Amino acid sequence: MWDQNKLYVFDTTLRDGEQVPGAKLNTNEKIKLAKQLEALGVDIIEAGFPISSPGDFESVQQVAKEIKNCVVCGLTRAVKKDIEVAAEAIKPAKHPRIHTGIGSSDVHIKHKFKSTREEVLEKAVDAVKYAKTFVDDVEFYAEDAGRADNEFLAKMIEAVIKVGATVVNIPDTTGYCFPDEFGAKIAYLKDNVKGIENVVISTHCHNDLGLATANTLAGVENGARQVEVTMNGIGERAGNTSLEEVVMALKTRRNIDMDIDINTKLINRTSRLVAETMGIPVQPNKAIVGANAFAHSSGIHQDGVLKSRQNYEIIDPKEVGVDSSQIVLTARSGRAALIHRLTNLGFDVVNDKNDIYPIYNEFLKVADSKKEVDDADLAVIMNKFSKK
Ligand code: KIV
Ligand code: ZN
After folding, report:
1. Residue 182 vs residues 26, 175, 204, 226: alpha-carbon distances, Å
2. Which of 83, 124, 138, 222 falls 20 to 30 Å from 257 in CA-CA distance?
3. Sign of the CA dihedral running 119, 140, 208, 32
């Protein structure tokens, strides 16, 4: 039985994240990242899609052997051969899970499967039944649930729970929903599906409209207890919900009281390891893990943050493994930031007109000529004033 007070973190960096063009990992790289995710404290690692290639089968199998403290999961379509291959790949795992599923929206049913609701429903049930012959822990995904008719979705979810699904995943595959809509979908399932209280409801949101984190949080607010996420938000197209955003949103605001077993101090290190190993750099303004997430560059903000960090920071950078916030000196910086940096460098300057103003004016000349003023530039400026 699952823990009702806990939010399960299902990391799919190695599966949905690895689907990003150019992000492909070899077996050693998958093992290295899986170990880092285990240290970070994720509950479930989706290690790959074993039928997709012999290399991925091997990677999933090796991850299954190495990882002891997380559930190791393999993805399948609702196809017997997929399920058999995934079952074989995850066999060495201490806690194995098969993640199987099929499309649930009419768009997918008509245009992807050229099928009917009835046939798709039957395939969903058969897939879960078959997966249950290999493992106890079977997660079912209703692909494109974001665009699915809620009544049909509820029917599908009820049918797979009846045959033993332990987790039901409600993906917003195309990143289509608004948060109120996605939250209402989860609430509808909670209210209308028999047996739903016995399984974990999972979210799996894509970021096509930049709403993946908001939708995931709306799902959690309405009863989802597993979140499917990736480090740095990587994943198909515009990506998946990012682990660091969901975890830090819930820990920072604390308006949903649940245990989350993530060691947040390892977030920054994990983010960098994923970016380097996959060769997918993190955008500088990315929440939590971007290079500028704790950097202050305008005079007003720098002055405020130097008076009290709380003025412009809602998270202590140390909480996510970043040593300290940064004061970046640019042409938009003010005297407070300049004095702060010069003092740190050992220069004796005070904020009065005679002392700092000429230095500040010289600083602005340099700052206007380049993007960032570094310590070497400051040394040259201070040399002119021979003020050490
Ligand atoms: O986005 C999606 O629907 C998926 C499923 C395979 C879970 O990645
Ligand atoms: Zn996905």
Report:
1. 35, 10, 11, 15
2. 138
3. negative
172 in contact with ligand 1, CB cutoff 6 A: no
pLDDT of 387:
46
Let me know: does 110 contact 133? Beta carbons within 8 Å: no
Q: pTM value? A: 0.96
Residue limits of CATH 3.20.20.70 in the chain: 8-278
For ligand 2, an ion, list residues with CB under 5 A. 16
Q: Which residue's C-alpha comes closest to atom 7 of ligand 1? A: 141
Closest protein CA for atom 2 of ligand 1: 173
- Closest Cα to residue 18, out of 243, 239, 235? 235
Pocket test for ligand 1, best of 11, 15, 16 (most atoms within 8 A of CB): 16
Tell me which residue of 248, 243, 241 sits closest to 206, measured CA to CA: 241
- DSSP letters, 258-298, are -B----GGGHHHHHHHHHHHHT-PPPTT-TTTSTTTTEE-S
The whole-angstrom separation of Cα 137 and Cα 141 is 13
143 pocket-lining for ligand 1 (C-beta < 6 Å): yes
- pLDDT score of 355: 85
Q: Indicate whether residue 202 lines ligand 1 (CB < 6 A).
A: no
**Mean pLDDT, contiguous 10-residue spans, the chain (388 residues):** 92 97 95 98 98 98 98 98 98 98 98 97 98 98 98 98 98 98 98 98 98 98 97 97 98 88 98 97 98 95 94 96 95 95 91 83 96 96 78
pLDDT at 388: 46
Place of tokens 């380097």: 276
Please give the Cα distance from 45 to 63 (Å, whole number). 9
Residues 4-16, buried b or exposed e (16+ Cβ, 10 A)?
Answer: eeebbbbbbbbbb
CATH number of 8-278: 3.20.20.70
- Number of other CB atoms surrounding residue 136 within 10 Å: 12
Residue 141 Cβ inside 6 Å of ligand 1? The answer reads yes
DSSP 320: G
Q: Is 294 in the pocket of ligand 1 (CB under 6 A)?
A: no
Does residue 204 have its Cβ closer than 6 Å to ligand 1?
A: yes
* 100-109 exposure pattern, b = at least 16 Cβ within 10 A, e = fewer: bbbbbbbebb
